[in-house]
Design a protein that fits this description.
Length: about 220
């Protein structure tokens, strides 16, 4: 039998184990960057860029979205969004975002606590999300199996996910990607694609028109 002292020593060794032996952060794409052209009615209206910084078992994720819809030289709609996520191992421990949706401002703060994720946002939003929830910033395919925290307004979402097989989708520069499609319904209505690199694209309807993301690089 293993002595109690040996068990205690083994437990202490695990606690002191290097980050590589503990739960790893979610995988990130080569080059630590994902970037997309955002198209409305097949016309580019801006970009969505995600950068990653890694240090041991810590991962930082920075999201920046800048969109503008213009007609005859007049800007009819403008959108900007910035979000920072902090991960330790396989858990998101904090996130902060700021959004300007055509003049309407939003702010969201997420902090991990003992009971889950404390979410605070504009309009006096405050609640505790399940510990398994993730921000719906799409780079992490694990979001398909978890509750979503909307990074714009902080609301908790539970989309229904249906795998729809593999298909070829367009990418920037006339290229194409082979990716797996997932159709989401319920709290959200969109299609999202993932390939061997990670997030490959997304499409959804806004005011009767289709918004589509095409990946750069």
């Amino acid at each position: 039998m293993i002595a109690r002292r040996q068990l205690l020593l083994a437990g202490g060794a695990l606690a002191l184990a290097p980050a590589a032996l503990r739960a790893a952060p979610p995988p990130v794409p080569p080059g630590d960057r994902l970037a997309f052209d955002v198209l409305l009615k097949a016309k580019k209206m801006g970009t969505h860029v995600i950068g990653f910084t890694r240090q041991g078992d810590r991962l930082g994720v920075h999201v920046e979205v800048a969109l503008a819809y213009r007609l005859l030289g007049i800007t009819l709609y403008r959108y900007s969004h910035r979000c920072n996520e902090s991960w330790e191992g396989d858990q998101m421990v904090a996130a902060d975002s700021h959004t300007d949706d055509n003049g309407k401002l939003y702010a969201v703060s997420v902090r991990r606590g003992t009971g889950g994720l404390l979410v605070e946002g504009s309009d006096n939003l405050r609640y505790t999300a399940p510990a398994s929830a993730v921000l719906s910033t799409h780079w992490n395919q694990r979001e398909l199996d978890a509750p979503w925290i909307n990074p714009q307004d902080g609301k908790l979402l539970h989309p229904r996910v249906a795998a729809a097989g593999s298909e070829t989708i367009p990418a920037v520069g006339g290229r194409s990607l082979s990716a797996r499609r997932f159709n989401l319904s319920g709290d959200v209505d969109l299609s999202i694609w993932y390939d061997r690199i990670g997030w490959a694209g997304i499409a959804f309807s806004r005011d009767g028109s289709t918004v589509r993301y095409e990946r750069q690089g």
